[in-house]
Amino acid sequence: MTEARESAGPHARTAPGTPCWVSLMAHGLTATEEFYEALFGWEFRPGPQQLGPYVRALLDGQEVAGMGQLPPENRLPIAWTPYFASDDVDRTAEQVRLCGGTVAVGPLDAADAGRLAIASDPSGAVFGIWQGAPHLITALSGVPGTPAWIELLTFETESVAKFYETVFGYAEEPVVSADFDYVTLRLGGRPVAGLHGVGHALPRDRGSHWLTYFQVADADETLRQVTGLGGQVLKTAHDSPHGRVATVADPEGAVFSVIENPR
Fold first, then answer.
1. How far does Cα 49 stand from its chain's mean position?
2. Which residue among 65, 121, 201, 226 has its CA within the 20 to 30 Å range from the CA of 90?
3. Which fold has domain 2-132?
4. What is the H or E stretch that residue 35 is in?
């Protein structure tokens, strides 16, 4: 799975369509920072303030993710949001609209880091678009505490796969199976994201949504840490063809997966 991500932050110059950043908007930013600092060893520094209080998470001095604070009146589900690279956010946002998606925020400039928009696909799953400034450093990947993979959980993959293929130029690689609806999105021959159609198993309170996987050194130990820090284990650790995986939620309910020895 780690081969699916280039080492790229929100402001790295990278191939359009490449997943390049993940960001979390929470109500209690300080408490959220404390949870992820203890879990992943992240440190934080202030980031662009266009969307309100925002920090960048760092590991070994290099950026891995972002976090912002939601206004108290915003009661949307707390969720990790992936961002996809673009050479022209305004043009990509217009393509999103033409293909049946919605642009909720932007496009707008984020200080000297680049230009962004936040959108949703026709199934309602939220994602970001990022046009990065070329002079800034790339983010860290491929080590514990960094994003390793992103996967869209949706009712069925066929229609939404066409949306992402048209907007970002992906090639589709479906799993040929009568009872497993899964499509891998490829860019330049590399897998960059997965689409998983789960039918009526899709959570009614969340609908279609992107799930971020973070690499960890020990999945079982990470689950013990999550519960000790006030989070929840939603799916216990189990071995998969891609590594040992589990799904958890932080204390505010943001769902993410962890993967040990991703391959």
1. 20
2. 65
3. 2,3-Dihydroxybiphenyl 1,2-Dioxygenase; domain 1 (3.10.180)
4. helix 29-40
DSSP state of 241: T
Q: What is the DSSP letter of 251?
A: T
2-132 and 147-260 agree in CATH topology: yes
For the chain, the structural domain boundaries read 2-132, 147-260
Query: Would you give per-residue pLDDT tens digits along the chain (263 residues)?
Result: 433 333 334 444 578 999 999 999 999 999 999 999 999 999 999 987 776 799 999 999 999 999 999 888 877 778 999 999 999 999 999 999 999 999 999 899 987 778 999 999 999 999 999 998 654 445 677 899 999 999 999 999 999 999 999 999 999 999 877 789 999 999 999 999 999 999 999 988 889 999 999 999 999 999 999 999 999 999 999 999 889 999 999 999 999 999 998 77
Of all residues in the chain, what percent are helix, strand and coil, respectively (each to 5)?
20, 45, 40
Domain 147-260 class, CATH top level: alpha beta
Longest dimension (CA), the chain: 48
Bridge partners of 123?
none
Beta bridge partner(s), residue 127: 119
Task: Kindly state the tokens that stand for 45.
Answer: 């520094």
Rounded Cα gap, residues 114 and 40, in angstroms: 26
| Structure-block tokens of residue 41 | 């060893």
d(C-alpha 72, C-alpha 76), whole Å? 10
How far apart CA 65 and CA 10 sit, in angstroms, is 8
